[in-house]
Structure formats: C-alpha cells, structure tokens
C-alpha cells in the first residue's frame, strides 16, 4: 500500500514523550513543518530525564535537561512545554499513568496526539541487530493511546477536575520502518538538527563526536528513506 501524507485537518497537537530529547529523535522535524504551517503544537514530558546522564546526580540533571528541552522546543516553534515530573526510569503502564495523561489531554485539548514508537524492540533503517526499547517508552506509549479514551470518559477518573475532552481525531505513533503515513520534512532538516543540538550537555556525555555532528547523524538516520527523500513516518489511529 502506498504511503499517504499525514492528515492536516487539525489545529492543535500534543506530542507526548517520556524524556527530554525523545521528541528530537525525528518527530521534531515534523513538528517544525506543522508550526511553520500555523499549527498549535505543544509538548508533554512525563519525566525530566533526571536518570539519563551518567555521573550527573538527578537533582542536577533534571533541571538541566528540562532547560535543554525548552530551548530545543523553541527552535521548532513550540512554546508550551509541560513536565509531569514523574520519576525517570520507572514509569509503569497502568491506571496511575493513564490518569496523569488523561488530565493533561483534557488541559491541552488537542485534536492530534503524537507519541514515539513503543514496541519492545526497534531497528533503525540499516542497523542490525535491533535495540531493546526503553521501559519508559513502552509503558508511556500504551498509556498515551488508552488515555485518549480516558480523557473523554466521565467515570473512569471521576475525580479529575479538568473538563472532559473527546476531541482527539487522530493518534499518531512514530514508525521508522514501514509507516503508512509520512510528513515530508525536506525543508526542516536543518531546523531539526539545531533542535536536537540544544541537548548539548546530554549529547556530550553520550559521545566524543561533536554535538552538531551527532545531531546530523541522528536526523539523517531517522528521516532518510529508501528513495532518498526526507520524511518522518507515523502509524495513525482514530482517536
């Protein structure tokens, strides 16, 4: 089946991720396309990524990574970034996490909810063997999908004070291998690289490769397709 463009009959999107920098590994290139077209895109981060920097204590890493994420979001035109402040590394799929996410969906009232790939393993194009996906990514992704329905249900989390929201039209899950829907990001690759490069302290700890070079490599890997185009892929579901 031929790949189809992502629908654009929506006004507000909420991009949900587990950690600072998750969105920048590909999705931010699509976000830059959307904001350039006048869409309202917001970020929701479950954690502050405080357990993600080797040798840096969580009380130091958390504020640093939050600030890097806010700068990174601003590069692609996102000004509203919310952190739930849940503990990094131990997200658990279940009603507690669903409740937090349902409340956030009610607050932001998106028509499109976007999240990262949350399968057990993932294989970027041209890479072997597969990587084991983060436990936080796996837990969060399933709860994001479920929370869309929870946000519109008056009885599941009856104690939530935010007004119910049933306006989500689409749920988009990042798909790097065989996506049925794509966003052409050929015009926003440089912006995506700059956005990822804002996670400077984090990337410096990952590798001795210069930050901008690391960022370029990541964006190349996540946006290049077999036909040489620049696209970010999603698997789309009805909200």
TrEMBL record:
Gene3D superfamilies: LmbE-like (3.40.50.10320). One of its GO terms (molecular function) is hydrolase activity. The keyword RNA-binding does not apply. Keywords: Hydrolase, Zinc. It is an enzyme of class 3 (hydrolase). Pfam families: PIG-L. Its EC number is 3.5.1.-. InterPro entries: GlcNAc_PI_deacetylase-related (IPR003737), LmbE-like_dom_sf (IPR024078). This is PIG-L deacetylase family protein. It comes from Blastococcus deserti. The lineage of its organism: Bacteria, Bacillati, Actinomycetota, Actinomycetes, Geodermatophilales.
């Amino acid at each position: 089946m031929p790949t189809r463009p992502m629908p654009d009959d929506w006004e507000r999107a909420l991009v949900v991720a587990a950690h600072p920098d998750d969105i920048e590994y590909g999705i931010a290139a699509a976000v830059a396309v959307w904001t350039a077209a006048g869409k309202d895109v917001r970020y929701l981060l479950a954690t502050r990524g405080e357990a993600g920097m080797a040798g840096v204590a969580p009380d130091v890493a958390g504020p640093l990574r939050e600030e890097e994420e806010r700068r990174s979001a601003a590069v692609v035109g996102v000004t509203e970034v919310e952190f739930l402040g849940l503990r990094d590394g131990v997200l658990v799929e279940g009603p507690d996490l669903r409740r937090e996410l349902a409340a956030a969906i009610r607050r932001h009232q998106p028509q499109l909810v976007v999240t990262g790939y949350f399968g057990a393993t993932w294989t970027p194009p041209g890479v072997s063997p597969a990587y084991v996906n983060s436990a936080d990514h796996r837990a969060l992704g399933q709860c994001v999908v479920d929370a869309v329905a929870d946000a519109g249900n008056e009885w599941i989390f009856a104690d939530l004070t935010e007004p119910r929201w049933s306006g989500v039209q689409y749920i988009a899950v990042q798909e790097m291998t065989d996506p049925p829907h794509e966003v052409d990001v050929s015009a926003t690759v440089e912006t995506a690289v700059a956005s990822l490069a804002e996670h400077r302290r984090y990337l410096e700890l990952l590798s001795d490769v210069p930050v901008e070079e690391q960022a370029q490599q990541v964006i190349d890997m996540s946006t290049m397709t077999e036909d040489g185009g620049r696209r970010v892929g999603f698997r789309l579901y009805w909200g």
